[in-house]
Design a protein that fits this description.
Helices cover about 40% and strands about 15% of the residues. The protein is built from 29 helices and 20 strands.
Amino acid sequence: MRKTVLFTALGLVAVLPAGRAFQQPTATAPQRAMLDEYCVVCHNQQAKTAGLMLDKMDLDHVAEGAETWEKVVKKLRGGMMPPLGNPRPEKGDVDKLVAYLETSLNAAAKAAPNPGRAPLHRLNRSEYANAVRDLIGLDVDVTALLPADDEANGFDNIADVLKVSPSLLEQYLVASRKLSSLAVGDPAITPVSDVYPVPPDLAQDEHIEGLPLGTRGGILIHHNFPLDADYEFSVGLLQNIVGYVTGLEYPHQLEISIDGERVFLAPVGGAEDNKMSDANLGIAKDTLDARLKTRLHVKAGPRAVAVTFLRKNSAESDEPLEPFTRDLDLQNMNGIPLIERVQITGPFEAKGPGDTPSRRKIFSCTPGKAADELPCAKTILTAIARRAYRRPVNDKDLETLLSFYQDGRNKGGFDKGIENALRYILASPKFLFRVEGDPAGAAAGKSYRVNDLDLASRLSFFLWSSLPDDELINAAAQGKLKDPAGLEAQVKRMLADKRSAALVNNFADQWLFVRNLQSSIPDREEFPNFDDNLRQAFRRETELFFESIMREDRSVLDLLSADYTFVNERLAMHYGIPGIYGSQFRRVKLTDENRRGLLGQGSILTVTSYPNRTSPVLRGKFILENLLGTPPPPPPPNVPTLKDNGEGGKEQSVRERLELHRANSACATCHAVMDPLGFSLENFDAVGRWRTREPGGKIDSTGKLADGTPVDGPVALRKALLSHPEQFAGVMAEKMLTYGLGRGLEYYDMPAVRKVAEDAARGGYKFSALVMGIVNSEPFQMKRAAEKKLLATN
């Protein structure tokens, strides 16, 4: 008789005849005794600590209490229980219990899979922008058109919080009208002004990456010019708080270039400007405003507009040769004028739509005569709708689109007809929402494999945050995604595609809190040298680092241990890395072990600090939540804040102040777990610089982790984290599956998470192995049909 091995653990093996239901093995007496001795003392029906009553739980029927046992597994895996200071069982005994629970839970889940039910999913703002880019070749900043999305479970693509309101629908309608007009090149486009501000704390004394060599300061703008037409460029220089334009003492030259070609050059400063400025501030400002305004003819399409100053060499300079200084309150840049904003207005005197990427993407055919227009419109709209709706187009779809086309065609010609139909597509629920309907005959509440077209959408929004391309839709329509080899080939192709950078910009930036850098504003008095250049360098370093792990298909453990990073001159100076010059980023080998991996990077260290000091609590919480997967409980109400340093007349270290804080019994338990993790990074200040002292004395980075492991700095912490690689890989799998599914994970998803990590371990924890594990998982490939009561109401 054919038999199936369902699980093995601790020498227990369940070998069942094929098709027979899962049977739970009997727990050993020592495991029950260990729970009673070390856990039930707090987690019982009387105390109900953390809502757990383990004295009621049956170890012989783990599947019946799966939700509770998953909580137990998480705490035991992380060494969080029993709490520090309480009697603890031998580690080997804990491992045996965890293995028994996990194996039982995994086997039960395999026998009766529950992949969850994907809710209706609206495209979030990033997905909408990417979809528009890939659909019609229009790469625009949609932040001015659509509001930011709410977040849940650490990500902004969670379906449950992507709500729809009448005002949001109105914004989608406005966006579709503007985007379709831009894409087609509507000659009726009226002039509009787009203002591009320069961050107020951007240092402009050196070359900025992306701007022409031989320049300093300024801004690089990616602007879409809708028509071949004239456009007005207006540059505003920064004024200090008393209205004085700085840097007029010496002559400078401001340059505007488009796609690398200089189109405008104007003098700024010198004797005459300085004289007028001294005599009358208004005259100098008016004169400069007029001089730094020009109208130019620009070809339609996306263009890179660089606005900057020519950099002088020492022989040309009339400026005093002294170190660069800056007073942030007065914005005094030591004789250097600064660009505050650039305004682009147009189009004027349009000559036509031009030859743009969006028109080339949309107009796959061009009618030569009136009789050709309808067949050409059908060809164009069928291709666009197929990609927009993520499936083949049916007759009803095409009929609706052609009615919109005809309405526009009657008012303004062929192009206007296509624009009108495109406007409908970009606001259509079939484009804005991902809907996965249950197949006919699906048994209520039962699990089934999603069809290939739905799987293609899951894949593309997971890896690209965008629509499936034609190749993926074709593979799905031909049923090739059911074949494991065909599916793997598509995943590898998609990871190699540049669009997979969405995993960096959307997944990694949110998982690692890198997006929070934009709102991180360190205290100017404590960190006077922090500026937007450094903030952007922090973000760029982490993004390039994560992308190198992905592109080179390295082990995800390298995220914690890699001996390299990416720096430019500004960041290298901050880290104390010698021999790096220029604004461009390059890969460097790290000689300082403290800087290895994510925990040595300024982005992580800054977003887990307060503006004026480090926070071992925030850093410890970040590690627990994002690297170990064992988040602490929320703080109790009315917890007193940490006292400011020097309060009471004596400067104290952060450790000393936290020790006083932990004297509160309500705070002590959680802080005992979080603080040692954070203290191990205390040699990094609040903006990631290495230090050995702080106000109050010498840095003390020693501590003991929840499982008793001693640490004394970043190196020891990293080694402790890597001693359990399966835990970090499991957390990354959990975060990635959450992001990939667009929903929060439930207890019944955890067996799938463990399988992803186990499969990745066999592949050396390579990035692609983790991704393939997600794609092959039951929650990703399957879905639970709606219950009968839901079916009856629909």
